[in-house]
Amino acid sequence: MQLDTLRHIAIEGVIGVGKSSLARRLGSHLNAELMMETPDENPFLERFYADQVGYAFQTQLSFLFQRLKQVQGMSQPGMFSPVIVSDFVFAKDALFARLNLSDDEYRLYSQMYSQAAQQVPEPDLVIWLQAPPATLLGRVKRRGIRMESNISEDYLGRLCTAYADHFSSYDGAPVFTVATEHFNPANQEADFSTLLEKLAAFSGRRGYFSPRADFAKTVSGL
């Protein structure tokens, strides 16, 4: 796979997994245009973290229209458009909605989402970053963002399950999954080089890399 020939590479994963940092690193490497989530521009997000039931619907709609505005420009790419690297896929919006909204709210949301999704092209590659909920919680706590202080390990665990369910049936683009508990391609040069090598060798619709699995193969001689 030649990354610089792709139109859109999306980095995905649960909060705290490092998707934004990797998107910036990969974007710099490819001299790509970045398309980043802007949670600070969602006026309901901080209130959602403090009261998920009370503010889930407003938060979700704000994200839906924000993300739609960001991705609409990709539907008509120019002849010499650069590679785009994003730290989200549009479909994540429905994933979070299903997790956070009541049944009645989700039915109303789905009507708006289904119309919006028709305007959004799929990425050419999704890099899905994974880590256990306890690891994710530790990373969230270390970065010390005030409005994230109420995020629980249970909520992160439910997000991990929702992502796994989503990607188990997702066929919109090739998905390369990376275990990041002991692997930091955003901040470690050797790890980033390893990731680029694995992506260059990737073909088909599904790929997976875990540094521990590769180490085990080396030790066993497989």
What does the secondary structure layout of this molecule look like, with pairings?
Elements: E1 8-12, H1 19-30, E2 33-35, H2 45-50, H3 52-71, E3 84-86, H4 92-100, H5 103-117, E4 125-130, H6 133-143, H7 153-169, E5 175-179, H8 189-200, E6 206-209, H9 211-220
Parallel strand pairs: 1-3, 1-4, 2-3, 4-5, 5-6
Helix pairs in contact: 3-4, 3-5, 4-5, 4-7, 6-7
Essential attributes:
six-stranded parallel beta sheet; 9 helices; 222 residues; alpha/beta; 6 strands; globular; single chain; 12% strand; Rossmann fold
Plain-language structure description:
- By secondary structure, the protein is α/β, with parallel strands linked by helices.
- The chain has helices at residues 19-30, 45-50, 52-71, 92-100, 103-117, 133-143, 153-169, 189-200, 211-220, and strands at 8-12, 33-35, 84-86, 125-130, 175-179, 206-209.
- It has a single domain (3-220), classed as Rossmann fold.
- The protein has a six-stranded parallel beta sheet.
- Helix 3 runs antiparallel to helix 4 and helix 4 (92-100) runs antiparallel to helix 5 (103-117).
- It starts with 7 loop residues before the first strand and ends with a helix.
User: For the record, what CATH class applies?
Assistant: Alpha Beta
Radius of gyration over alpha carbons? 18 Å
Distance between the termini: 24 Å
Main-sheet strand order equals: 2-3-1-4-5-6
- Structural class category: alpha/beta
CATH superfamily: P-loop containing nucleotide triphosphate hydrolases
Under the CATH scheme, which architecture would be assigned?
3-Layer(aba) Sandwich
CATH topology (fold) name: Rossmann fold
Number of helices: 9
Report strand %: 5-15%
